[in-house]
Design goal:
Elements (H helix, E strand, L loop, with lengths): L11 H4 L30 H12 L6 E5 L6 H15 L16 H7 L6 E4 L16 H4 L1 H6 L9 E6 L6 H12 L5 E7 L7 H5 L2 E4 L5 H11 L5 H10 L4 H8 L3 H13 L6 H12 L4 H22 L5 H21 L3 H19 L3
Parallel strand pairs: 1-4, 1-5, 2-3, 3-4
Helix pairs in contact: 3-4, 9-10, 12-14, 13-16, 14-15, 15-16
């Protein structure tokens, strides 16, 4: 049995671990899943799709939608669904009532290829100096919207822009976007995707129509997993459904590479809150160096697992959950900072374990 010990100051060997090793990350082999721009089916979001369809087919849709919901529930899929319809038919009832567009339609083919001149997708770019993904969606990217919306393309001159995600915008980018929303161009639609809409500027939220996506129910999630993962056993798919909290994206991430192992490690970190295993955490940190986006994925699983436990305890009327909510916010900030600064995993894991240990020691396990 491995010995456990409480955290003390890090030794120089640990705290000075060579961050250059992060460049030796090895990409895990993962199955291929369809990109949202080619996905034809929107799972479990009938209410949101019906709301969008009524607005668009009325001929007077809003010029900005804020599409919100947990990661992996279909925000990008519904955004491309809307984009295909507008680019094929414009705003009106000339197309299908569910906004579907046949795969062979020219607009659908161009969207699937990422080549439609009437569609602009803004995401975090690659830093040319470091070769790594940028930590924010910059103002330079958002400023591309002004020129794009000045063009004419698509059915009736419609242009559609998807910001994936608006959560990634820095302050300057958010202010630039706000100016565009204050003077929206005609026959243009802006689709903002957000996991945490409460963090966006209130003025941005107020100028957009809300489209809220909910976690999938277990039957819909199981049907989707059966379609995507036909070679997996029913019991394994059921395990993915339990771990994914209603997110098809999370379920597919768990199914790929070392996803399920990382999710199990996140659960162990919470379960061993009062007695964290330092040796195991250091070994896990070393493993994460060898998994592409390993630390980020573990952080996602840890935050989701802790959020799920907090929600369950809240339904039971458990006390002192405010301390766990504060701890959850600190964990989110810590993992976001680690991703932004490309910090080595071991220090980040130790900091997370300390936060969980402190909270469990003061108010009990969650």
């Amino acid at each position: 049995m491995r010995s456990r010990r409480r955290f003390g100051p890090l030794s120089p060997a640990v705290s000075g671990y060579n961050s250059a090793m992060a460049k030796r990350s090895i990409k895990a082999a993962e199955p291929e899943f369809p990109h949202p721009r080619t996905t034809r089916t929107l799972l479990g979001q009938d209410a949101a799709l019906a709301k969008a369809a009524r607005a668009i087919r009325s001929g007077k849709p809003p010029q900005g939608w804020l599409i919100s919901g947990p990661p992996g529930v279909g925000k990008a899929t519904i955004a491309y669904h809307i984009a295909r319809y507008l680019l094929a038919h414009g705003a009106g009832d000339g197309g299908a009532a569910d906004l579907s567009v046949p795969a062979g339609e020219p607009a659908a083919l161009q969207v699937a290829a990422g080549a439609h001149p009437g569609l602009l997708v803004l995401q975090r770019g690659i830093n040319e100096k470091t070769g790594k993904l940028m930590t924010v969606l910059s103002v330079e990217e958002i400023r591309k919207l002004a020129g794009f919306f000045g063009m004419t393309s698509g059915a009736g001159g419609w242009r559609v822009a998807i910001v994936d995600t608006a959560d990634d915008m820095n302050d300057n980018a958010a202010n630039a976007l706000l100016k565009l929303l204050e003077e929206p161009p005609s026959r243009a639609m802006l689709l903002l995707l957000s996991n945490t809409p409460g963090r966006l500027l209130p003025t941005i939220r107020s100028r957009c129509q809300r489209l809220v996506l909910r976690p999938l129910g277990e039957p819909a999630l199981m049907r989707a997993l059966e379609s995507y993962l036909p070679d997996m056993s029913a019991s394994e798919r059921a395990q993915l459904a339990r771990l994914s909290a209603g997110s098809i994206g999370a379920a597919l991430a768990l199914a790929s590479g070392e996803g399920r192992e990382l999710a199990a490690e996140a659960d162990r970190l919470i379960e061993n809150a009062s007695q964290p295993d330092l040796v195991a955490l250091l070994a896990l940190g070393d493993r994460l160096f060898r998994i592409q986006d390993g630390l980020e994925r573990l952080g996602d699983f840890l935050i989701e697992a802790l959020s799920t436990r907090i929600r369950a305890r809240a339904h039971q009327g458990a006390p002192h959950l405010d301390r766990w909510i504060i701890a959850l916010a600190r964990l989110k900030d810590g993992f976001a900072r680690a991703a932004g600064l490309h910090l080595e995993p071991r220090q980040t894991l130790l900091s997370a374990a300390r936060e969980i240990e402190r909270t469990a020691r003061h108010v009990g396990a969650v």
